[in-house]
Amino acid sequence: MFEYAPAPESREIVDIKPSYGLFIGGEWVDSQGEDHHKTINPASEEVLAEVAWATEADVDRAVQAARTAFTTWSALPGSERAKYIFRIARIIQERSRELAVLETLDNGKPIRESRDVDLPLVAAHFFYYAGWADKLGYAGFGSDPRPLGVAGQVIPWNFPLLMLAWKIAPALACGNTVVLKPAETTPLTALAFAEICRQADLPPGVVNIVTGAGETGAALVNHPGVDKVAFTGSTEVGRMIARSVAGTRKKLTLELGGKAANIVFEDAALDQAVEGIVNGIFFNQGHVCCAGSRLLVQESVADEVLDALKRRLSTLRLGDPMDKNTDIGAINSAAQLAKIRELSEAGVTEGAERWSPPCPIPDRGFWFPPTVFTGVAQSHRIAREEIFGPVLSVLTFRTPAEAVEKANNTPYGLSAGIWTEKGSRILWMADRLRAGVVWANTFNRFDPTSPFGGFKESGYGREGGRHGLEAYLAV
Ligand code: NAP
Ligand code: MG
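# NAP complex -> structure
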């Protein structure tokens, strides 16, 4: 065995202020309320900064600022709006190391992932939608599609800056203005993005960032001056939002949870499939809505796949997210850790068998070892409920028809994976799987040109690609 020497990324490159206000109308302003919230590094529980909690009055100010800015922003030719969005994309690329470090500190994800996955995708998203801004008449939504107005956007903590990019880039390209609320545990990269808007000379009020908790999100969603609501988060909150928006003129897109099946057939390249299983559920600590959290493996190769998977998991390195060799970082919050523990204990109680590799856990911070459950029945909570952590439930199947039936036996329908060497089987399966994205011989691959979104309780509307424009246009 070779030992790894520590390879920590330096945090010198980021300058975190002790406290942050709200970004409204292109200015940093104080909240009108008294409440502040400390955001921490989940890997060490160190306080990083204090952020304001926006009140209803603050949200109102932000929506007014966005309304005022809408008149001029929406009247700009698309080619002019594109220049701003391209500029934002270039600044993100220039500052990507700094943003990756900030994301890792605030979220707990490994620096290797924020540097090599999140940040390149964030920049790519802005570049991609900048390209659409002057071509909207050719997107298939009429010759001169109009923007909706003010978009109220609420995002979760698992990909803080990437979810911001998915929301803001298409909204601006289509001529809308936005008020965005980041998640309470990961506000810092959204606040850094506010600085980037200033650096890019984006007209004041086109982007407004209001930090806060669920109440701030609710105030934004319910504000009568909002024309479009875009939400990514839990199905539970998504339902509440759908109820509150029903009967208003607001257009709504919801990107919610998932319980994806990653399906391995006996003819698959098994070593690659094992890498795909690991990437599917242990990437980003399993805090991924489209995570391959249910492994469906064909019975004839189940033992072989599980042995290889366990060997592979024994080589994963859990620990300091700032270390460039780390594979598994910290769980984002104490609350999320409690949820993962509760569901894992339910798995044991209901009779599944739990396995984790030997894995030293740091003393401070929130951690959960990579975990595999075998002997899982479809009725078990760990097979039905979204755990949103590094926990894999393994089920087996004999025939393709049984694989389809088990894969679709979920209230969700965000993604699925198929591992086989037969092209015809991939197409046959993809036709029958009720999932917004179906990956074949790969998993968790993202591209700004490709639409992403769910069926059933995973939500509605699409983000990414040409389809993603529709959510921000009056069509
Ligand atoms: P969450 O509780 O639904 O929170 C998401 C966002 O909504 C946060 O900013 C949250 O604020 C805010 N919020 C909470 N209550 C609200 C309310 N009543 N009205 C308006 N906004 C409200 O979800 P989470 O636990 O943070 O995130 C994990 C979930 O997101 C998972 O279920 C996952 O599957 C889903 N997700 C889906 C996708 C997708 O693309 N489909 C992507 C990522 C995550 P606070 O942070 O202050 O609570
Ligand atoms: Mg944090």
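# post-check
Residues 199 and 342 are 45 Å apart (CA to CA).
Residues 261-440 form a domain with the Aldehyde Dehydrogenase; Chain A, domain 2 fold (CATH 3.40.309.10).
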